Amino acid sequence: MDKKYLNIYNEILNKIENNYFKPNSKLPSENDLMREYNVSRATIRNALNLLEQNGYIQKIKGKGSFVLDIHKFNFPVSGLISFKELSKKIGLNANTILKELSVIKPDSYLMKQLQISGDEHVWKVIRVREIDNKKIILDKDYFNKKFVPLLTKDICEDSIYEYLESKLGLKISFAKKEITVQIATEDDKKYLDLEGYNMVVVVKSYIYLDDASLFQYSESRHRPDKFKFVDFARRNKEVMKG
């Protein structure tokens, strides 16, 4: 079996990891790589396909192969942390852009997510998170107005959680989260710098207060190449009796 492509894969990968091939740069063409390594087109394509499958390059039809940024931000799955807290923790050059702040009557979807009736009102907050001058997160947050009577532009562009906890005295306790990969919507394309990606990673969160009241539903939509979703788990083996 021809293993030459694995050697080529490892050589190109080493160049990517050592920044010889920089993020967003174009790799040499298939013809150039064939000449450089003195192998067939099929061998080069096998190496490039493996690089793409493992998230190191993106092949664009008619344009070539482009290096992805492999230095991803760690995004914690467990725990509750605000974007402001996360930015400080990992030293991000980050900015929040408020796109919409309004009070709405919930539709059937939001009624189900927030477990409320159509007579209640909801804060709708749409924010774009910009990191290193790239718009890579679209946050859609919905707060039950019964628990959050007031929000302002300044609060939303700073930290809503800091305001809720320090000013309103709310005790945010826990969240249930769901992570999926979805086709980019028109809003994703409108607000984010997708740079050719047609998929986004969506983290849906249901956030509760310490009395188990559900007060927030959110959809955090991430460009897929910029984040690693990390968690910590410990196995507790049950003691068998009898």
UniProtKB/TrEMBL annotation:
SUPFAM superfamilies: Chorismate lyase-like, Winged helix' DNA-binding domain. Residues 2-70 form the HTH gntR-type domain. GO terms for molecular function: DNA binding; DNA-binding transcription factor activity. InterPro entries: Bact_HTH_transcr_reg, Chorismate_lyase_/UTRA_dom_sf, TreR, Tscrpt_reg_HTH_GntR, UTRA, WH-like_DNA-bd_sf, WH_DNA-bd_sf. The keyword Transcription regulation applies. GO terms for biological process: negative regulation of DNA-templated transcription. Keywords: DNA-binding, Repressor, Transcription, Transcription regulation. NCBIfam families: trehalos_R_Bsub. This is Trehalose operon repressor.
